[in-house]
Amino acid sequence: MLTGAILPILASAANIQLGETREYGDWIAGCDNALSCEAVALMPQENFGHFESLTLQRSRVGGPAIDGAPLSIKLNGLKTDTDRYRIVIDGFVMDTGAINQENHAIEVTSRDAVRLARGIAAGKKMQVQDGDGRLMASFSLKGSAATLRYMDDKLGLTGSRDAIVMRGRKNARVFVPDVPVISAKRINENGRIPETGELVALTEETHCAQNRYGVTEDRAYALGEYSGIDKALILVSCGSGAYNFRSAAYLATSKDGATWQLSSAPFDVKPRASGISSNIPTLLNADWDPSRQTLASFAKTRGLGDCGDTAAYVWDGEMFRLSGAASMPACRGSQDWITVWRTKVDFTS
């Protein structure tokens, strides 16, 4: 990784490499392209059905830090009517403090988080109690040491004073990640799109027509005007399963706002759900957010929604560019997914 970079790295399909995830026992870890790593506790079988979550996040984003890399430990989904907590590992109290009363969450940061993380790596079982000693959540620590060792290695902390597991006396290697920058086109929401009748006629000619049944909803969103040509995103309903709804992504273009032509929507990274046709990108549970000007895909591996992949794209005037992605391959009750790709988006008029 280069240090001291001045010019931003522009995101392109050639340099997009998603981070990987690794599962160890009852834990899973992964890092993204900006050296931000997360370790997530998975629900043990005896606790399945509960949705408390425990995530350790350590990051090089923003450059080197005094502590080697900032670390935070977050616990969400806790149910309590008291404002204090105790974290107990193998019978020993490792941390106490106040519970956030707005979201009933706990966050431990800085050196307190490092000390607690080392206790997690060395322990077998962790309990979270409220101020009255009542159990709020419990987590298996099987695999936590291997998970945090993997995180240490990815962040260049192995053998340093700041490592969680493999500590030593050397100084941590310094990483300054270059986060890719996407120049996205700011879209006028009042741009033209196909009229209802035109949209119906267009979608009936797509490959999705034979995969449609029941109530369908085709959607059109303005992408702006370029050299006298109006462009619009068309999401065509393309069949569904028990919990995933397929949408084929088309680009509609028009010179007069009345007659439109469809073509495959261009993406720098083809959506993973594409499969019905090798030529047409297909997204699962697709959604366009006008306020953020982001096209999102949320692919659920099962109906519970605790595993799968997400991706976000922005429009740069020519194609949809991957601006972020997250993954959770383990279907074990986690509501915290691991970021595997991040960028900075610079909107231009």
Q: Write down the secondary-structure element order.
A: EEEEEEEEHEEHEHEEEEEEEEEEE
Structural class computed from helices and strand pairing: mainly beta
User: How many domains make up the 3D coordinates?
Assistant: 2
Q: What's the overall average pLDDT, rounded?
A: 86
Number of helices: 3
Largest sheet: 6 strands, antiparallel
What gross morphology would you assign?
Answer: elongated
The strands making up the biggest β-sheet line up spatially as 1-2-3-4-5-8
Radius of gyration: 23 Å
E-strand count: 22
Q: What is the share of helical residues?
A: under 10%
* Share in β-strands: 35-45%
Low-pLDDT stretches: 1-11
State the distance separating the first and last CA atoms.
Answer: 32 Å
In short:
This protein has 349 residues and is mostly beta strands. It has helices at 110-122, 144-154, 196-203, and strands at 21-24, 27-31, 36-41, 53-59, 71-76, 84-89, 92-98, 106-109, 125-130, 135-140, 181-185, 219-226, 229-240, 245-254, 261-264, 282-284, 287-289, 294-300, 308-315, 320-328, 338-342, 344-348.
Word description of this protein:
This protein is mainly β. The chain folds into two domains: 162 residues, Sandwich (Immunoglobulin-like), CATH 2.60.40; 167 residues, no CATH class. The chain is 9% helix and 39% strand. It has three helices and 22 strands. β19 and β20 form a beta hairpin. The longest helix has 13 residues. The radius of gyration is 23 Å and the shape is elongated. The two termini are 32 Å apart. The N terminus is likely disordered.
